[in-house]
Specification:
- There is one protein chain.
- By secondary structure, the chain is mostly helical.
- It has one domain.
- Helices cover about 65% and strands about 0% of the residues.
- The chain has four helices and no strands.
- The longest helix is centred in the middle third of the chain and has 29 residues.
- The chain is elongated and about 65 Å long.
- The two termini are about 20 Å apart.
- InterPro entries: DUF6640.
- Keywords: Membrane, Transmembrane, Transmembrane helix.
- This is Acetyltransferase.
- It comes from Rhizodiscina lignyota.
């Protein structure tokens, strides 16, 4: 497992986060639902826009070059660069998971439904969001684990301190 494996996993989550809010919500069940008041559609739009924002931010964090302070001693630069790569990917995983974690919490609000009554017969499961949430969160966790392990192994090979 190298540098790119956790980033590829996170890229899958990011791609789903960017695209699926529009695929799933820009139709008769949400945005074009005549029973929805304008303010509900407003919040659907907000949520749909949040997906691409979080997905693209997650990608940027995962793939950006680690920037070290200008006064970093040359002898510490390789270790600090690795640690910075790990920190960036961990934050990218947290950002990547935000959309899915908040989607789970939505069911706990008063009068909230995972699927409106009129569309329940077409839903594959009672809470179809879980079909995306669980795999996305598992991929984020796997990316986090693989990056932490990669950096710990690399630091150990350099004779550096083991990362947790």
């Amino acid at each position: 497992m190298g540098y790119y494996t956790p980033r590829i996993l996170l890229s899958i989550v990011a791609a789903v986060t960017v695209l699926f809010p529009f695929i799933v919500d820009f139709n008769h069940t949400h945005v074009y639902n005549p029973r929805w008041p304008g303010h509900a559609v407003f919040h659907a739009g907000q949520t749909m826009t949040l997906g691409p924002y979080l997905g693209l931010l997650s990608l940027w964090l995962a793939f950006r070059s680690p920037t070290l302070p200008w006064n970093t001693p040359q002898s510490l630069a390789p270790q600090l660069s690795l640690q910075k790569q790990k920190e960036d990917l961990v934050v990218a995983c947290i950002v990547g998971a935000c959309y899915y974690i908040t989607q789970w919490s939505a069911i706990f609000y008063p009068n909230s439904l995972a699927v409106d009554h009129e569309f329940r017969d077409h839903a594959p499961v009672p809470m179809p969001q879980l079909l995306f949430d669980i795999p996305a969160l598992m991929l984020c966790a796997a990316a986090w684990y693989l990056e932490t392990r990669r950096v710990a192994k690399a630091l150990k090979g350099m004779g550096g301190k083991k990362e947790n």
